[in-house]
Specification:
This protein is of the alpha/beta class and 334 residues long. 49% of the residues lie in helices and 11% in strands. It has 13 helices and 7 strands.
Length: 334
């Protein structure tokens, strides 16, 4: 699309937006499962979204340059791409395209220390920077997204209409009590505070999932319990351990009552590791979250070298029996 075509499109869009009474525009980079649903939720709230993605079938413009040209200043551009180098490269490119007074929002799962580096880069050009921890997954389109943001009050205010569109509408908690304050959204502090908060959130998520998984395994291991999915479903109402994660476990068991279609291998996306690293750095005891992280490492081992060593030691000092590798297994490819 030529520069003149983008300008013409933008003028038409501005007129249409004015006629509809839209409040703000949003540039959104990354239209995958999360980004695509977030774009739709913002549009449903009456705002205009100009989306860019590497996939031609998803995007509204064909380049970051066109995205910037299609937005009125001061611009708010939300980056929703994988953390690490993809986010770093996108932020760097945007800094070269945006103007003083514009704001970049990183809504991915970046490490909070990356945010502080990006903020320095942005400030050199007068560009604002917000880090937004986003929780809600694929259900966020209908239920809303919990948002934990870091940045200056001025920058957060520029993006607040977008945050308001994305956050959940719920006014009561799980017990039915009315929320006080702005539940589902928090301005947690300066740059870095949003992703630090989301990091801890994900560490807690690791521990919750591990606890539910261990409880499920014990129920399934005994003959006494005849309806394991039913027991877990019973916990979703009126109990102190009910949660959305528990609801999702019920859904998974409805689809596959014995979880026989799933291999017990759990990846980790980084936030759990970072949480434990910060616990060590700040001398905060964190045995539960640390154990849940290490359990994921264990899930990736078909035959644990650690437990081989333990078995060998038991045999050496006490003559305890070991389970030998059957003939042919030792030569089997990994």
């Amino acid at each position: 699309m030529s520069r003149d075509a983008v300008r013409h499109s933008t003028m038409n869009t501005e007129q249409e937006r004015s006629e509809r009474g839209d409040d703000v525009q949003l540039g959104l980079i990354g239209l995958g499962k999360m980004g695509g649903n977030m774009s739709e939720r913002v549009r449903r709230a009456g705002h205009e979204v100009v989306g860019y993605d590497h996939s031609p079938g998803k995007r509204d413009v064909d380049s970051l340059e066109e995205l910037v040209q299609a937005l009125e200043a001061p611009r708010v551009v939300w980056v929703m791409v994988p953390s690490g180098e993809p986010t770093r490269a996108t932020v760097k490119d945007l800094v070269g395209l945006l103007e003083a007074g514009d704001v970049i929002v990183d809504g991915g799962n970046s490490k909070y220390t990356d945010d502080q580096i990006h903020d320095v880069m942005c400030r050199e050009k007068g560009i604002g920077y917000i880090d937004a921890g986003v929780s809600g997954g694929v259900w966020g389109l209908e239920n809303g997204y919990a948002l934990m943001v870091g940045g200056t009050k001025e920058d957060v205010a520029k993006a607040q209409p977008i945050f308001d569109a994305l956050k959940p509408p719920a006014t009561v908690d799980e017990s039915g009590q009315e929320h006080t304050g702005d539940a589902g959204f928090v301005h947690a502090g300066p740059v870095g505070a949003g992703h630090f908060s989301k990091m801890v959130h994900n560490g807690i998520e690791y521990a919750l999932m591990q606890a539910y998984g261990e409880g499920y395994e014990l129920l399934a291991a005994v003959d006494l319990i005849e309806d394991v999915p039913g027991v877990i479903k019973s916990w979703t109402q009126g109990t102190v351990i009910r949660s959305w994660l528990l609801d999702l476990l019920v859904r998974a068991l409805d689809e596959d009552p014995g979880l026989e279609k799933i291999h017990g291998y759990a990846d980790d996306s980084g936030e759990g590791r970072w949480t434990v690293e910060q616990a060590i750095e700040n001398a905060v005891p964190m045995p539960t979250i640390a154990a849940s992280l290490f359990a994921r490492f264990s899930s990736r081992q078909d035959d644990s070298p650690t437990m081989k060593a333990v078995a060998a030691l038991r045999n050496q000092f006490g003559g305890h029996a070991v389970h030998a590798v059957r003939e042919g297994e030792a030569e089997a490819p990994a």
